[in-house]
Amino acid sequence: MRIQVRRTGGFAGIERHAEVDTSGRPDAQEWHALAEKAVAAGRGVPPIGVPDGFSYQITVDGRTVYAADPRLTEEQQKLISRVLKEGA
Amino acid sequence: MTTHGGFEPVFCTVVPPHVLDRLARNDDPALSGPAQRTLVRDSELRSRRRVTTEFRLWAGPTAKAPSEQPLRTIYDAEHRTDLPGTKVRGEGEDPGQDATVNRAYSGLGATFDLFLKAYGRHSIDGDGLPLDATVHFDEGYNNAFWNGEQMVFGDGDGEIFVDFTNSIDVIGHELAHGVTQYTANLTYYGQPGALNESMSDVFGSLIKQYSLGQTAAEADWLIGAGLLAPSVTGQALRSMKAPGTAYDDDVLGKDPQPATMDDYVRTGRDNGGVHINSGIPNHAFHLAATAIGGFAWEKAGQIWYDVLTGGELSEKALFTDFAKLTVRAARERFGDGGEELQAVEKAWEQVGVRIL
C-alpha cells in the first residue's frame, strides 16, 4: 500500500509532502488499518479550513481524500503525523 | 488528539448565518449538529429581541460601554489537541514560570491596545469580546491558527520553527483574523483570502511597530522574525518590504511571495495561494506607509482599517476592489489631492493593481 500525505497552508504557507510504501514492512497491517480509517473519514472535496489552519490531501493507492485542521479524526491525525515523520 | 467528539465547535454569533446554513446541511454531523443548534438558538434570541423591542419590555441589564481593558485567558493544551485546554492565566493575574504563556498574554494585550488606542475599537468584535489563546498545542506543532473563536499556538519542532508566540506580529496576525471575521469577513480563498491574510500581516506588523514605537522608516516590515530555528537560512516568514526575500533555505525552499501582479501565482493549494499572493497587497501597504512617513498605524493603517470595517468591502472582494476603496478612504479621511491619497494611488500602481 502506498500512502501519500500533502500538507499545504498554515501560517507559513510552506508545503510538505511525504509517502510511505508499506510493502515488506513488518508493521504493514497496522498502517493499512490506520490508512483505511483515515480515508473513510476524509472528504471528497477540500473542506473550508480555518485561517492559517493546515489543509491535508491523503492519497492511498491512488484514492485521494481531504481534511483540514483543527477537525481531524484521531486516525487522520495519527496517519498524517506518522507519514510526515517517517515517510520520504 | 482531536476527534469529532473531542472538538465540537460552538458557533455563536461568530459564524455568519449563511455559513451556518451551509454547515447545517453538511454531511458531517460534527459540523452540522452545532450549526443546527446555533441556528435554532439564534432564532429564539431574535424573536425575544423583537418582542422586547416592540413591546418595550425590560431586556435585561442596560447596555454599557465595553471595557477599556482586555479580558484575556491563556490555556495550556499540554501538547494535546483538545481545545481550549487547561486555564493557566486569567486577566490581571501575575506572570508565571512559563514564558510562552506570558508572551501570549502580553501579545494579546498589545493587540488590544493598538485597536483601542489607534482606532477606538474595543477588542476584536468592537464590543469587548474576551480574548482566549491556547499555547503548547500538539507536539512540535509548526503552526499557529485562528479557529473562529480563539488563537492556537504550537511550540514548533525546534528544527524549522521555534515557539510561535516568539513573534508579537504572529500573535497580532491571529487576532486580526478575528477582526476580519467580525467585519468584512473576507472569504478565505483566492484573492479575498489573500486580502484576509494581508489584513492580518498589516495589523500584525503594526502591532509590533506600535509596541516598539517605530516609524515606517524604522520598522523591519517582517512577519515571523524570530520564528525560524537557528539552522534555517532566512530572517522571517514574509517580508512586506521585499516579498519573496524572507528566506531561501535547503529544507524550507525559497519564499514564494510575489511583490507585484506580474508575478501573481495561480494555484489551488494553500486555499488558492492565500499566503503567497498576500505579498502583493502587503507590499502596497508598505509602499503607501513609507511614502506617507511617520507612524504607519496613524495614516496608512487608518485608511486600511476604514476599508476593512467600513461595510463596503465585499466578502468576495478582489485586489482591485480593495484598492479602489483605499483610494476613496484616503480621500475621505485626509482630503482630495493630499499626500496620503497620492501615496495610496502610487502604491497600487507600483504593485500593478488597477484602481480605475
From TrEMBL, chain A:
Pfam families: Emfourin. InterPro entries: Emfourin (IPR049457). This is Metalloprotease. It comes from the Bacteria.
TrEMBL record, chain B:
GO terms for molecular function: metal ion binding; metalloendopeptidase activity. It is found in: Secreted. The active site is at E174, H275 (proton donor). Keywords: Hydrolase, Metal-binding, Metalloprotease, Protease, Secreted, Zinc. The keyword Endoplasmic reticulum does not apply. Residues 184-353 form the Peptidase M4 C-terminal domain. Residues 78-92 have a biased composition (Basic and acidic residues). Residues 74-181 form the Peptidase M4 domain. One of its GO terms (cellular component) is extracellular region. One of its GO terms (biological process) is proteolysis. Its cofactor is Zn(2+). Residues 78-98 are annotated as: Disordered. SUPFAM superfamilies: Metalloproteases ('zincins'), catalytic domain (SSF55486). Extracellular zinc metalloprotease. PANTHER family: NEUTRAL METALLOPROTEINASE (PTHR43579:SF1), PTHR43579. This is Neutral metalloproteinase. It comes from Streptomyces aurantiogriseus.
